[in-house]
């Protein structure tokens, strides 16, 4: 018995009675014109009905057909579509990343809050999305936040400022209103609109309405058409099967780490393990390994050591590495200085800059780990009394905790003790992710309602490291502060006091212009109070700032 033919699934395309009725109509018109003129080519056109289309055709006939095709296309475009449907606008799938972002920004705009930071937007939009905004699905590198690039490309979302803030455009507001109306209408969890994937590709034009003769591609066979239909059916089945997986990726505790779901990791800046005295730096790594410290070497934009709470993620069968877990930075950061390095940083100005950046990094417990350098201390460029005074100022004036050790082994021992202490301190705490821009740099311990567990608000490692970038885009206020701190005797506290009253150079120059005399200009800043003791800035610094910004020529 002959083998039975394989069963084909999918929609069958209705075969037209004529493979290309439009082409047949044109050839019929050409035949009639040739018959009126008495030309013998009418016999060639007559053979079309006998399915001998490609026989006895020349270049003139092909050019005539091209001209008629171009004319038909112009009429079809200029005639209001001629039955063609317009392209659909971009509409994100319900409970997708784009849907959640549009809906969240629209509801925030009703409360007169038109811009949102990234972390705030992710936290607020997570309840409206089935996928996670921070952790990709199994076997994928994309999260729900990946659809934001599509919204920006479609001119539905605007990204401004640094750090980035997001707001809706007029088109975005109009689309969000439609989504809000449909959400209020009790739509099901699985929307019938497909989200545009792969960067927001435009949807294909709809097929022509039934009853109108369409142009049929003569190069396409029936087998090709059926295979395309089969592929469409398979794509629909794959999409429907992936929806339960998306719903499983929703996380009830998004934005927080519960006790027992994370571990404390010591992060070591890679500069502390490479370059310089390679033997001495490798000794630090060996001591940490010998002490059983769980540490990770990575690039830190500020500080040399810090601790993160890393989420425990189970490995996935079939994958080489487990998916990355969330990381929240604890409020402790260590800057390690040998005495010779401390001397060099004081001379070239890095010492003040590093302390200023440590204060602004968002962590509340900065630590200065000062390491003695043995007999090399007698050959330093600065006297030992100057170095001792700088260390005392760091502890008393700047408020840093200063720990002095003798060598690399004691440094590793201190880091080991701190790691064990922090592990015990945070073992029963719920860690909540916060944003520096939204909540400021000050965060306190709270009690989680209903559970009686102490909670602590921390910033994510990604936001911390991005915000501590040394050469990132700076505001006018930040540049003005750095200018003021270049003046001898003008510390960070004094610069901050000046910025409270005059946030930009323009505002300071405007205040100078309003002064009636030169003496008044020189003493404009002398009564500004700074620091915890609220001391006056003094006439000497006030005069120096006035001369710096108001002297037209070179300073003497």
Poorly predicted sequence stretches spanning 5 or more consecutive residues: 48-53, 186-252, 439-443, 447-451
Q: Count of DSSP E strands? A: 15
User: Helical region count?
Assistant: 20
CATH domain fold name of the domain at 256-312 and 325-439 and 454-468:
Rossmann fold
Helix content: 40-55%
Radius of gyration: 36 Å
Biggest sheet features = 10 strands, mixed
* CATH architecture heading of the domain at 256-312 and 325-439 and 454-468: 3-Layer(aba) Sandwich
Query: What integer is the average pLDDT?
Result: 76
Label the structural class. Answer: alpha/beta
Which word captures the global form? elongated
CATH level-1 class of the domain at 256-312 and 325-439 and 454-468: Alpha Beta
Beginning-to-end CA distance, first to last residue: 109 Å
The percentage of residues in β strands lies in 5-15%
Cofactor: Mg(2+)
Subunit structure: Interacts with EME1.
Organism: Sphaeramia orbicularis (orbiculate cardinalfish)
Subcellular location: Nucleus
What can you tell me about this protein's structure?
Its EC number is 3.1.22.-. Belongs to the XPF family. It comes from Sphaeramia orbicularis. This is Crossover junction endonuclease MUS81. It is found in: Nucleus. With 556 residues, the chain is an alpha/beta fold. Among the domains are: 21-53; 97-182, Arc Repressor Mutant, subunit A, CATH 1.10.10; 256-312 and 325-439 and 454-468, Rossmann fold (3-Layer(aba) Sandwich), CATH 3.40.50.10130; 476-550, DNA polymerase, domain 1. It is built from 20 helices and 15 strands. The protein has helices at residues 21-37, 41-46, 59-78, 97-110, 118-125, 148-153, 170-184, 222-248, 278-290, 339-348, 350-360, 384-396, 408-425, 436-439, 461-467, 476-485, 492-501, 505-514, 518-522, 539-550, and strands at 116-117, 157-160, 165-168, 256-257, 262-269, 295-298, 305-311, 327-338, 365-371, 401-405, 430-434, 445-447, 454-460, 529-530, 535-536. Strands 4, 5, 6, 7, 8, 9, 10, 11, 12 and 13 form a ten-stranded mixed beta sheet that branches. Strand 9 (365-371), helix 12 and strand 10 form a beta-alpha-beta unit. Helix 4 crosses helix 5, helix 9 (278-290) runs parallel beside helix 13 and helix 16 packs across helix 17 (492-501). The longest helix has 27 residues, at 222-248. Mean pLDDT is 76; it is low at 48-53, 186-252, 439-443 and 447-451.
């Amino acid at each position: 018995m002959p083998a039975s033919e394989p069963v084909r699934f999918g929609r069958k395309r209705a075969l037209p009675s004529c493979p290309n009725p439009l082409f047949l109509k044109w050839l019929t018109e050409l035949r009639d014109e040739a018959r009126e003129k008495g030309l013998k080519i009418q016999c060639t056109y007559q053979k079309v009905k006998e399915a001998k289309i490609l026989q006895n055709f020349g270049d003139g006939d092909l050019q005539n057909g091209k001209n008629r095709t171009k004319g038909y296309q112009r009429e079809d475009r200029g005639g209001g579509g001629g039955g063609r449907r317009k392209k659909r606008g971009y509409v994100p799938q319900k409970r997708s990343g784009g849907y959640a972002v549009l809906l969240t920004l629209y509801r925030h705009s009703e409360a007169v809050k038109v811009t949102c930071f990234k972390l705030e937007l992710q936290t607020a939009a997570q309840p409206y999305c089935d996928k996670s905004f921070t952790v990709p699905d199994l076997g994928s590198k994309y999260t729900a936040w990946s659809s934001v690039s599509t919204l920006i490309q479609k001119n539905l979302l605007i990204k401004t400022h640094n750090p980035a803030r997001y707001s809706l455009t007029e088109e975005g507001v109009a689309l969000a209103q439609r989504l809000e109306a449909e959400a209020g209408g009790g739509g099901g969890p699985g929307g019938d609109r497909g989200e545009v994937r792969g960067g927001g590709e435009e949807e294909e034009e709809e097929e022509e309405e039934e009853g109108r003769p369409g142009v049929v591609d003569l190069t396409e066979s029936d087998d090709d058409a059926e295979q395309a239909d089969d592929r469409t059916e398979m794509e629909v089945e794959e999409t429907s099967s992936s929806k339960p997986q998306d719903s499983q990726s929703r996380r009830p505790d998004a934005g927080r780490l519960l006790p027992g779901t994370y571990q404390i990791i010591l992060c070591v800046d890679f500069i502390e393990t490479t370059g310089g005295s390679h033997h001495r730096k490798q000794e630090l790594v060996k001591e940490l390994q010998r002490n059983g410290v769980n540490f990770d070497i990575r690039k830190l934009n500020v500080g040399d050591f810090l601790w993160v709470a890393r989420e425990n993620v189970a490995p996935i069968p079939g994958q080489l590495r487990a998916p990355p877990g969330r990381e929240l930075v604890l409020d402790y950061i260590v800057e390690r200085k040998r005495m010779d390095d401390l001397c060099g940083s004081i001379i070239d100005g890095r010492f003040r800059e590093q302390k200023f950046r440590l204060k602004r990094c968002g962590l509340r417990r900065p630590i200065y780990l000062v390491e003695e350098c043995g007999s090399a201390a007698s050959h330093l460029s600065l006297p030992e009394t100057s170095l001792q005074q700088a260390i005392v100022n760091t502890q008393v004036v700047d408020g840093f905790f200063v720990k002095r050790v003798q060598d690399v082994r004691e440094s590793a021992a201190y880091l080991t003790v701190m790691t064990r202490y922090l592990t015990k301190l945070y073992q029963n705490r719920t860690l909540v992710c916060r944003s520096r821009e939204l909540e400021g740099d000050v965060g306190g311990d709270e009690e989680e309602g209903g559970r009686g567990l102490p909670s602590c608000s921390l910033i994510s490692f990604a936001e911390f490291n991005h915000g501590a970038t040394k050469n990132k885009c700076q505001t006018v206020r930040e540049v003005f502060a750095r200018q003021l701190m270049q003046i001898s005797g003008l510390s960070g506290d004094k610069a901050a006091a000046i910025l409270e009253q005059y946030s930009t150079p323009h505002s300071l120059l405007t205040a100078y212009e309003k002064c009636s005399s030169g003496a008044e200009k020189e003493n404009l800043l002398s009564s500004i109070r700074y620091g915890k003791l609220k001391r006056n800035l003094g006439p000497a610094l006030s005069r120096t700032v006035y001369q710096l910004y108001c002297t037209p020529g070179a300073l003497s």
